[in-house]
Amino acid sequence: MSSNTDNRKAKDRVLLPQRLAAQVANRRSRHLNRTLTDLSALAIPATHDFASNDYMGLARALSTATPSQHPHGSTGSRLLSGHSPLATTVEHSLAALHSSPAALLFNSGYVANLSVFSALASPGDLLLLDELVHASVWDAARMAVGRWAMRGNPEAVQVRTFKHGNVSDMCRAIGEYRAANAKGAVMVAVEAIYSMDGTVVPLREMVDAVGRWEDVWFIVDEAHSSGVVGEAGTGVVKALGLETEERVLVRVHTFGKAVGCHGAVAFCSNDVREYLLNYARPLIYSTMMAPAAVQAISDSYAYLVKHHAQLSSNLSAIIAHFRSTASSYSLPLVPSSTHIQGILIPGNQRVVRIARELLNRGMYTLPIRSPTVAPGAERIRICLHAYNSMVAVDDLCLAVKDLLLSEQEQDIKAKRDANVVVAKL
C-alpha cells in the first residue's frame, strides 16, 4: 500500500528545475520579473542620476580622481543602478571557461551561499548538509527555514546532516526523507575541498549513488579549489568531468582565496540564474561590487589561464615536500593530499601556544581550536602556496618538531620533579 502511495506522490512531483522555471514564468507573466538594465545601451545617455545610492557623489568624484577606466563605486544594487556591461562580460567569460551555461556574480562566497540556499529551498524540501560544510551554508540553511517560518507556512524547509564524505550515510538520509515525503526536492551541500581537513569530496560516487532518486541535486562550494584544481584552476567539478552533469545544480566559486581578489560566482543553468536574480534576497538588496573589483576578477583569471600550469606544478612540489619532510620528523599529520594541511596538536591552549611560538620565529600559521574542529583534533593549519620555498617548508617542519620535543622534555622534567616531591613526603 505504502509503495503505491509513494509512486502516486512521485508521479505528482514537479522537479526542482521545472519548479524554479515555473515560478519565474509566473512572475514574468505578471510583469514583475526583475532584469538587469544596461545604461550604456540607451539611445539617449542617462546624464542625470536620480537612481543610484551615491548620495554624496563620492563614487563619481573618486572615479575622476583615481586613474582608472572604471567608476570607483557601483552606486547601488545590481538590479537598480549597480549593473554594468563589464559585469556581464566577466560573467560570460567565466561561464565559458568553466563550461557552464550561465554565471552570476556575488559580493562574496558567504553572500553567494546565503543567496543560493535560502532562495532555492521551499517548504517540504530537504537541505542535506555534509557535517563539515562551511559556516555560511549553515547560516543559509537557517535563513531558508526562517524565511518560510516567518510567513506562517506550516510545512517547513527541513535541514539534516550526513557524516563527512560518507556516501552511504548520505543515501541513508535521503532514503529516510523520501520515505516520509516523496514530493520535496533534496539539495545536498558539499565542499569541493574542505577548509579544515583538506579532504576532497567524493562527488562522482555521490552523483552515481543518487541515481535511484528523482529531484536530488548537488550544490558544490568550490571556495578552496577555485584557482587551484583543474585546468586554469576551474575546480573539482570540472576536473572530474561533471560540469555538464545535471545533478550538479550550482557550483559556487570564490575569488578571495587563490584567485586573489574579491567576490564570488555561481555557475548554473540560465533558469536557475534568472530565479536567483528574482528571489535571492542577499543579492537583490546588496550594493553591487565596484567595477574595479569586477575588473580585478577578470585580470586574475587572465593571469591564471596564462600561468596556472607552472603555478600548479610549483604547488604540487611544495605539497609533496611538506608531506615527506613532516613525515620524516614523525609529525602527526592530517591525511590530506591538497594545499590545505594540518599538524594535529590536541588541546586549545597547547595549539595556540605552538602557533604563537612559530609566529615568534617568523612563521605565520593558524591554530584551529575546538569547537571549529572536534575536541582532540585541534591542529596547526598549514596553507601551502606556489610561492613557498622548499627551505621555508624545511624550517617550518623543523620548528614544529623542536617545539613538540621541547614540550615532551618539559613534561618529563615536571613529572620527575613531582616524583621527587612525593618521595620527600
TrEMBL record:
Residues 63-82 are annotated as: Disordered. GO terms for molecular function: pyridoxal phosphate binding; transferase activity. InterPro entries: Aminotrans_II_pyridoxalP_BS, Aminotransferase_I/II_large, AON_synthase_class-II, PyrdxlP-dep_Trfase, PyrdxlP-dep_Trfase_major, PyrdxlP-dep_Trfase_small. Its cofactor is pyridoxal 5'-phosphate. Keywords: Pyridoxal phosphate, Transferase. Belongs to the class-II pyridoxal-phosphate-dependent aminotransferase family. BioF subfamily. PANTHER family: 8-AMINO-7-OXONONANOATE SYNTHASE, CLASS II AMINOTRANSFERASE/8-AMINO-7-OXONONANOATE SYNTHASE. This is Pyridoxal phosphate-dependent transferase. It comes from Catenaria anguillulae PL171.
